[in-house]
Amino acid sequence: MLNITGVHTFYGSIEALRGVDLTVNAGEIVTLIGANGAGKSTLLMTTCGIPRAARGSIRYLDRDITRLSTHEIMHLGLAQVPEGRRIFPRMTVLENLLMGAIVSDEAYLEEDLERVTTLFPILKKRTHQRGGTLSGGEQQMLAIARAMMSRPKLLLLDEPSLGLAPLVVRQIFEVIEEINREDDVTVLLVEQNAYHALKLAHRGYVMVNGEITLSGESRELLERPEVRAAYLEGGH
Fold this sequence. Notes:
- It comes from Sedimenticola thiotaurini.
- Keywords: Amino-acid transport, ATP-binding, Nucleotide-binding, Transport.
- Belongs to the ABC transporter superfamily.
- The chain is α/β, with parallel strands linked by helices.
- It contains ten helices and ten strands.
- The chain folds into two domains: 1-77 and 153-236, Rossmann fold (3-Layer(aba) Sandwich); 87-151, no CATH class.
- The protein is 37% helix and 26% strand.
- The strands form two sheets. The chain has a six-stranded mixed β-sheet with strand order 6-7-8-3-9-10, sandwiched between helices. Strands 2-1-4-5 form a four-stranded antiparallel β-sheet, covered by helices on one side.
- The mean pLDDT is 93.
């Protein structure tokens, strides 16, 4: 579904991605783990067209999207939940959800609203509340629900557990698994919480300083001593 080959991305003279190769097959949950500043978020943003890859190629559904604009990419069935949620704080929950539906068929609007509020029942109770007044966990739920309103085939999730209480993190990860299983949405998950991410995902990649250093089945990565030492030791 998504094939990233030899991608280099720069911020000015700083090379943030150094020849990254990564593949996500249809139906998978694939996680990308690594320390803060490793380039994980840059890879997701590069996939969405901002910033652009300086070299290499990004193919989605057998189409080269490396040079497409962000809005063209979104119309192909790809959605991103950015780090920090980035909801519209002055808009209501409903208005945020409607923003997510802009690229989808209006005929599915009511069905999709019902679906996302079934995934996150608290959003139904907060329909007319401004997004900025929600708790951190509720804002993350809204960000995921807004992305789902676009009916994505591929969902890019950037640090969905960041700053959330363990109970909320568990709920978010359960919903990600349900979206993948029940809605047939493929997921590329960027996470610093390596343990939860690898327990959820089918396959994983490890990124260090803009390069992929390890990849494999999630169960295998959980057992790798270098992964355990760098990301798992000292508790989950």
